[in-house]
Amino acid sequence: MWSGRSSFTSLVVGVFVVYVVHTCWVMYGIVYTRPCAGGGNCIQPYLARRPKLQLSVYTTTRSSLGAENNVDLVLNVEDFDVESKFERTVNVSVPKKTRNNGTLYAYIFLHHAGVLPWHDGKQVHLVSPLTTYMVPKPEEVNLLTGESAAQVSISTRLTLNVMVDDFVFDGSSLPADVHRYMKMIQLGKTVHYLPILFIDQLSNRVKDLMAINRSTAELPLTVSYDKISLGRLRFWIHMQDAVHALQQFGFSEKDADEVRGIFVDTNLYFLALTFFVAAFHLLFDFLAFKNDISFWKKKKSMIGMSTKAVLWRCFSTVVIFLFLLDEQTSLLVLVPAGVGAAIELWKVKKALKMSVVWRGLRPECQFGTCSESERKTEEYDTQAMKYLSYLLYPLCVGGAVYSLLNVKYKSWYSWLINSFVNGVYAFGFLFMLPQLFVNYKMKSVAHLPWKAFTYKAFNTFIDDVFAFIITMPTSHRLACFRDDVVFLVYLYQRWLYPVDRSRVNEYGESYEERPQQKPRAD
Predict the structure, then answer these.
(1) Does one domain contain both 250 and 312?
(2) Would residue 505 count as lying in a domain?
(3) Distance from CA of residue 497 to its chain's centroid?
(4) What are the residues whose beta carbons fall under 8 Å from the beta carbon of 12, sequence distance 6 or more?
(5) Which helix (DSSP H) or strand (DSSP E) does residue 218 occupy?
(6) What total number of domains does the chain contain?
(7) pTM tops 0.70
(8) How does pLDDT run across 145-176, given as a tens digit for each residue?
(9) Is 288 exposed, middle or buried (0-12, 13-18, 19+ CB in 10 A)?
(10) DSSP string, 155-201
């Protein structure tokens, strides 16, 4: 019979497998569209007739456009080739209404060459706001001199796509996602759909936005175009809808921007791999937290465990969480960091109750009845920290002074948190060494939560993948690779010191002390 712990883990893994299979099926349904098999319901592509097209981009403060009045032509591409990629930067005049917190819109028309879009019955157009409302980011300055950071020249982006596949749709089963972008016309006895124009909102990143004030007369706008396939178009439409749904559920513009960055800055095949990696990361996060809590709930003593390493891990986790919060990092990174910090605080409370250091909480230690293993563990722990402090403290203080003189911050609090977290990131692995030292001196690793370590090790290597995908502070990205080294050393010690069955295992049990089951009577 399975134990309750094994049954619950198996249930979680089973649900995870069902989720992955269902996701694969949904993704297949998105990227694959069944073509028309023939008959009168087929809708032909108008682009197959190879018409001469023209691309025009206008700006206006009106959300609805009825005529050519009160519009500014900012880009006109004659002899527009849907197969040719281009990127052009133009200057856009900023009306007074926009400078007073109004919205500026871009109208994109794809129409026949030589014909104004208002006079072309076969034109297609879309509208997109070029401005948005956001809380300005606090300016970073040198806290000693007051010098501000240098301004970086950026340009607002408008990314356009046209679906170029000569795909024949089945009129009786049009995909709903593409249908809302389609405009049909009747040419003789055949129904055609006009070129499908698409505005890639996922490419509009927060880093490309420029602040508008009352003195802003014009701003640069980069218009880029590239063709797109039907499968990628449908996938992109679903992703844009998903980002919009996240914002409706309360995600901030910055959090939504981090999700956009995953899609825009990543190859499509690598992006598909990222979905599966993210799913496994979520599974291993859950299993690691579950087994870590289970291990500490069952633990009765700190034999073989470095108390100072536990304290440092808690301190560093809380500091990293505060740093990520101060940097307004994506919720994809912030939420797991917050959960981990809460668990580490609980573990410290549990460790202090069991630690030999806090003898007032251990009545048996007041009478000298603590085990020799506990005394040795504390002795090795203290010895390791003594030598590390000679190296760690000067480096941390020196790094904080250097950053104060050469790096710009939003506030003194920001500098303090950054100084702490830089010490954690740069030298934090040194505080993991006491546990390695205790393992070496005791020639055993049976006291460690190896199930939780295994799940965390998998997540560490998964974090290496996310380090290249999700926007995060550089120091946090480097820390992902630093943790790889630590886990490899732990694995080496696991191989070097086989489990001694006379010692307690990760659940605080000794194999040799387990009560023997009585033989059953026949």
Answers:
(1) no
(2) no
(3) 37
(4) 283, 286, 287
(5) strand 218-228
(6) 2
(7) no
(8) 666 655 555 668 899 999 999 999 988 888 88
(9) buried
(10) -EEEEEEEE-----EEGGG--HHHHTT--EEEETTEEEE---EEE-G
